Amino acid sequence: MGNLLKVLSREIENNPHFFLDFEMNPQKRRQAAWLWDLHPSLICRDVVLITLLFICSAPSLYVVFHMAIQNPNDIQLQERAWNSVCPLVVRLKRFYEFSLRLEKALQSLLESLTCPPYTPTQHLEREQALAKQFAAILHFTLRFDELKMRNPAIQNDFSYYRRTINRNRINNMHLDIENEVNNEMANRMSLFYAEATPVLKTLSNATMRFVAENKTLPIENTTDCLSTMASVCKVMLETPEYRSRFTSEETLMFCMRVMVGVIILYDHVHPVGAFSKASKIDMKGCIKVLREQPPDTVEGLLNALRFTTKHLNDESTSRQVRAMLQ
């Protein structure tokens, strides 16, 4: 615990060896094997899902669906649009189901990282394998949601699918795809994808529900866990001595996404949020770290702070912090 406290108090020169290992070796990873069973190899799954999202809503599909809507009596156009939308809907269902698995995994992690007798700070230092899993979930979430925001056609494409199956229900027709995504599932998925940042919204709600359902656990256990992770990430990013230990630029982005992710969760759970003077997160320092990176690499993260936090526009938020996010 001493090492971590020294990092947080900026005593880096005297004790430079604490490092929240986001590139941990397999031996440490096996310490959290029970959790890996919940969501096997998020890093590999991350790449697969993000790649699928890149291709699942190509611009050419918009033309196909638009023509089909404008020409409802053209059977060939309807068949072409339907054959294009069905694989898309199956992929979107997989994303949706994966977000539900992440929700359960996140709550399991919060339970492990906040339970007595250890403090959240002690948990993070003692159980870095679990901290890495928590971080991997947030990393995936920020990547997925940023990419989803760049593909607004996804919601329109899914709307075409819903309109088609509703029309078929009126005509007493049943299609094989409805065995995979029926009307009830389609309604749930529609609500999910209507959110600007659907996975982050899911995890924010899961964190708030975790706090509400664990009434015997002080809320400070959860908020301190989140604020500590944010602080450690910030110190690692702003300190050359720590940044030099990253073996790739992707780890740098990983650390920034985790920092932003825990800030957003903290802002939803803490009664006055992350931007208040009562917050344990140095928001000015965190934003400064992001601003020091190439703009094209962090604009999505800055937008996440601008548009998915809860308390940014509160009166208690300082003008300086608001100006830094302009």
What tags apply to this protein structure?
elongated, 71% helix, mainly alpha, 326 residues
Structural features, described:
This protein has 326 residues and is an all-alpha fold. 71% of the residues lie in helices and 0% in strands. It is elongated.
Give a quick summary of the entry.
With about 325 residues, the chain is an all-alpha fold.
Describe how the helices and strands are arranged.
Elements: H1 2-8, H2 26-29, H3 33-36, H4 42-56, H5 59-70, H6 75-114, H7 120-126, H8 128-149, H9 153-170, H10 183-194, H11 198-213, H12 219-238, H13 240-243, H14 249-269, H15 283-291, H16 295-307, H17 319-324
Helix pairs in contact: 4-6, 4-8, 5-6, 5-9, 6-8, 6-9, 6-11, 7-12, 8-14, 9-10, 11-14, 12-14, 14-16
Secondary structure class reads mainly alpha
Number of strands: 0
% residues in beta strands = under 5%
Q: What are the secondary-structure elements, in order, as H or E? A: HHHHHHHHHHHHHHHHH
Q: Unreliable segments (pLDDT under 50, ≥5 consecutive)?
A: 1-18, 31-41
Work out the helicity level.
over 70%
Largest sheet: none
